[in-house]
Automatic annotation (TrEMBL):
Matches recorded under PANTHER family: ES1 PROTEIN HOMOLOG, MITOCHONDRIAL (PTHR10224), GLUTAMINE AMIDOTRANSFERASE LIKE CLASS 1 DOMAIN CONTAINING 3A-LIKE1-RELATED (PTHR10224:SF5)
Domain of life: Eukaryota
Full protein name: GAL3A protein
Length: 189
């Protein structure tokens, strides 16, 4: 297992205590290295031939830094290195795992694919971003409704997705869903 991130500037830096942007500037690779405790490489160095699968964690950083979904929604652009990484694994028929908001990357890069970001309605207030499912459908992809502890496997494209934090759920339920996504990716590898 190796961890990669693009060597680019973050769109913005958020003070998560206050929930507001700061004037500070940070680099995605450097910030990712903080989270990975330094065990990370530049995404430009990733070679699909050296790996059996790729998994993209989610988080709002995906919608801000790996693509422009946070600002442009379905009209977003995907970072060139992220796009080429996804294309390389897909072309090699290797599994791709995506969780939280990152399934929108597949929706932009692989028209016609099947993904989940949870539900297409804000069921019991647990899915406040349910409109993302409609945007995925507008991109020509099929959104599959799943609960937070489940994942969806698009067998034709070898894409496995789960909603994770797109659902307001207890952490153990989110953990379970991510676990099923990882297990399904490994089954396809």
């Amino acid at each position: 297992v190796k961890i990669f991130a693009p060597n680019i500037e973050q769109r913005d830096v958020v003070n998560h205590l206050k929930g507001s942007p700061t004037e500070e500037k940070r680099n995605v690779l450097v910030e990712s290295a903080r989270l990975a405790r330094g065990n990370i490489q530049d995404l430009a160095e990733l070679k699909a031939g050296e790996f059996d699968a790729v998994i993209f964690p989610g988080g709002f950083g995906v919608a801000k830094n790996l693509c422009s979904w946070a600002v442009d929604g379905k009209n977003c652009t995907v970072n060139e290195q992220v796009n080429s990484t996804l294309q390389a694994f897909h072309s090699a028929k290797k599994p791709i795992g995506l969780c939280c908001i990152s399934p929108v990357l597949a929706a932009k890069v692989f028209p016609g694919c099947e993904v989940t970001v949870g539900q297409d309605k804000n069921v019991d207030g647990r899915f406040p971003d349910a409109e993302t499912a409609s945007a995925i459908a507008e991109l020509g992809c099929k959104h599959i409704c799943k609960n937070v502890n489940e994942s969806h496997v698009d067998k034709a494209n070898k894409i496995v997705t789960t909603c994770a934090f797109m659902c307001k759920a207890p952490l153990h339920e989110i953990f379970d869903g991510i676990g099923t996504m990882v297990q399904e990716v490994l089954k396809l590898a």
